[in-house]
């Protein structure tokens, strides 16, 4: 069973954190969820990592501020910059030593980039590998929702206007009945050719837990972030990037530009898949994550020991 606890941020926000595996595992994998979601997004990866690596890998998930079971925050802190700072603080609290693999979906991937940009020394000292799932380093540059550019511009205008309204709604949450009525739209926006009904229910449940302030407040910095230059400084790290060819939010050009900035990155494009690859294509995501972890475990640890000799790897 995972250990559950809260980590306090300097501004008083409390982040809900869950960990699985021993605190002294040679490698810690930190899985960061996307916008309006929560740590439950990774449940299929948690099971796979435990089965594959046992005590050799500790897995950490947490709900971003304003999401899931974490507390709401002041509107000025609903930014990717703050999420990058939060990640540094979480690492200090739950994985103060040892090597770390950072795995980010959508906003979670952008959080990793912001952490690397704002805390380069901290990042370099801790991070041993990267996995980017359905994310971008170029804001909304490539986001056209699978539609014509003209219609996409109109949708983006409506979306950003609506986000500004929601951001002023504080810690309120969307009524569950409304979200249930919107499930066909959620399915169209987030999933590709096929999805399990349980996945739609989980996503709807996550959106219902997100405060309206976080749903609206993070939209501006998500659309504006550009961190390709930051990625080019990380080319030495084992990395993987995955995207679905039906992703309406972060389409294949987003992952392709990440792979171009990180030439050693293994790029996987999943036919027929949308934005929720962890759920739609768990085998591909698990294989990419496992591949990066095995490369890190096989490399000498900073003290010269072979990390793969510590713990059990099945």
Key words describing this protein structure:
globular, 16% strand, eight-stranded mixed β-sheet, 314 residues, 44% helix, 14 helices, disordered C terminus, alpha/beta, Rossmann fold
What does this structure look like?
GO terms for molecular function: hydrolase activity. This is Alpha/beta hydrolase. It comes from Micromonospora lupini str. Lupac 08. Keywords: Hydrolase. Pfam families: Abhydrolase_6. The chain has about 325 residues and is an alpha/beta fold. The chain has one domain (about 5-310): 3-Layer(aba) Sandwich (Rossmann fold), CATH 3.40.50. Helix content is about 45%, strand content about 15%. The chain contains 14 helices and eight strands. The chain has helices at about 45-55, 80-95, 105-120, 120-125, 150-165, 175-180, 185-190, 195-210, 210-215, 220-225, 230, 250-260, 275-280, 280-300; strands at about 5-10, 15-20, 25-30, 55-60, 100-105, 125-135, 240-245, 265-270. It has an eight-stranded mixed beta sheet with strand order 1-2-4-3-5-6-7-8, sandwiched between helices. Strand 1 (about 5-10) and strand 2 (about 15-20) form a beta hairpin. The protein is globular and about 50 Å long. Mean pLDDT is about 90; it is low at about 305-314.
CATH level 1 class label: Alpha Beta
Give the total of beta strands.
8
Strand order of the largest sheet: 1-2-4-3-5-6-7-8
Radius of gyration: 18 Å
Poorly predicted parts: 304-314
CATH superfamily: Alpha/Beta hydrolase fold, catalytic domain
- Percentage of residues assigned to helices: 40-55%
Report the biggest beta sheet as strand number plus sense, adding barrel if it closes.
8 strands, mixed
Oligomer state of the chains in this structure: single chain
């Amino acid at each position: 069973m995972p250990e559950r606890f809260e980590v306090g941020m300097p501004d008083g926000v409390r982040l809900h954190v869950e960990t699985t595996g021993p605190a002294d595992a040679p490698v810690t994998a930190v899985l960061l969820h996307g916008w309006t979601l929560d740590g439950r997004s990774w449940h299929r990866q948690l099971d796979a990592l435990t089965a594959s690596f046992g005590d050799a890998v500790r897995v950490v998930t947490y709900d971003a501020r304003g999401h899931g079971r974490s507390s709401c925050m002041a509107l000025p802190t609903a930014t990717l910059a703050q999420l990058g700072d939060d990640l540094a603080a979480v690492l200090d609290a739950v994985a103060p030593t040892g090597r770390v693999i950072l795995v980010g979906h959508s906003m979670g991937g952008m959080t990793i980039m912001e952490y690397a940009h704002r805390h380069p020394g901290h990042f370099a000292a801790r991070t041993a590998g990267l996995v980017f799932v359905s994310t971008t380093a170029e804001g909304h540059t490539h986001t056209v929702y699978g539609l014509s550019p003209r219609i996409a511009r109109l949708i983006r205008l409506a979306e950003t206007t609506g986000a500004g309204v929601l951001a002023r709604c504080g810690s309120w949450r969307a009524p569950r009945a409304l979200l249930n009525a919107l499930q066909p739209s959620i399915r169209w926006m987030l999933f590709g050719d096929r999805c399990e009904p349980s996945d739609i229910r989980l996503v709807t449940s996550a959106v219902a837990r997100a405060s309206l302030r976080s749903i609206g407040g993070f939209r501006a910095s998500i659309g504006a972030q550009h961190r390709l230059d930051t990625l080019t400084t990380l080319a030495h790290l084992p990395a993987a990037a995955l995207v679905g060819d039906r992703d309406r939010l972060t389409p294949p050009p987003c992952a392709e530009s990440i792979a171009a900035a990180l030439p050693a990155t293994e790029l996987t494009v999943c036919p027929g898949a949308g934005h929720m690859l962890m759920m739609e294509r768990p085998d591909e995501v698990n294989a990419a994550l496992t591949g990066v972890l095995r490369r890190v475990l096989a490399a000498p640890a900073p003290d010269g020991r072979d990390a793969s000799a510590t713990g059990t790897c099945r």
